[in-house]
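Feature request, filed as a ticket because there's no other form

It would be nice if the structure record came with a short human-readable summary line next to the tokens. Right now we just get the raw output. Example of a typical job, pasted below so the devs can see what we mean:
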Amino acid sequence: MSKHPLYSQIEEVLRKRIASGIYREHGVLPGEFALAEEFDVSRRTLRKALGALEAAGFISRRPGIGTVIRDTQVSPRRLQYDIAIINDANPDPAFNYQSILSDGPLNRGIMEALGRRGHWMRYIPWTSENRFYDLEEIVSNRRIDGFVFPSPHSVEDVLRRVVEARIPHIAFEIEIDLPGLNAVLADDVQAARQLVKLLYDRGYRHLAFLAGILKPKWMNTANRRRLNGFLQGCAECGLSIPAERLLFFGEERRFLVQEPGLRRQAQQLLQQRPLPQVVILSCLLAAQIFLQVAGELSIRIPDDLAVVTFNGSTRDQLETDPELARLAMFRHELPLLAEKGVSRLQHWLNNYQYTPRIHKIPFQFQAGYSLKET
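Raw output as currently delivered:
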């Protein structure tokens, strides 16, 4: 819970609403009864908040007119919020800022979306053994208006405290059982179900799924969500998938290098006879390694088997690889994910009654050479 008095919290919300122009059309605040009901406080508490606003020069209370907004006191600078971006710290502190700038299109999309809105940004590299920051000081810092978590699983202790304190925040690519979580992610389950239906309608019956690293079940990673969606889609279409064609690893490991496991399982899958008709790959890294192994084994795509992949939150060089870009793919745009997340955070900052929830972005199917039209 916030350490600041309730009237002070209300004053802060009203100040930001005034600065953002919410009340500009009418030039006055809603009446005391309406505001007291909205904030669920007594009129006495509300009047203390209004008194603080008036003392700061934001409003003046005029008999017979109401609480008038003083436009001359609203500077464009007050439209800005102070946003903290929380990421996993680099073992070498000298590389912390370099890593956020080079860590792929999602981070850059978040910073661009915040920058377009004129917000201040502060970067907090975090580990549980952090010698630079104290968790309670971060959460109780009144100068921080909101939090962004681009990779929340690696800083979950901070995320849980922020959620517990009901501080405006947005977390990306996470869907866990945490009441009060405000998050945005790609709708992996629905996309995988749609993919199975698309393949079924085209006459494909013998499918395989290379899911990659799943990590612990409670994390509910994108790879795990896609695998679950695939299994749901198969059940809906009446398809039975043999165990040897469902490949994944690392169910109990949070941190594991993916490449060796992906290569090993790609070899295992491509040495099966007969081959499946279609192999579904959970991400572009899996697709890159799978294509390499297929080439080494002289397996032709799409003549010997078809391939469909998901894109996901991945490195730039994979997004722009010419061969990967031509694959049949279910994809979502990371800049759209970033924009959606920042807009949800902005809405919460402007709206005291905002209800945090999970927001999902749909995938789009991209036709490619690796899946023949039927």
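Something like this underneath would help us a lot:
The radius of gyration is 25 Å.
Confidence is low (pLDDT under 50) at residues 72-78.
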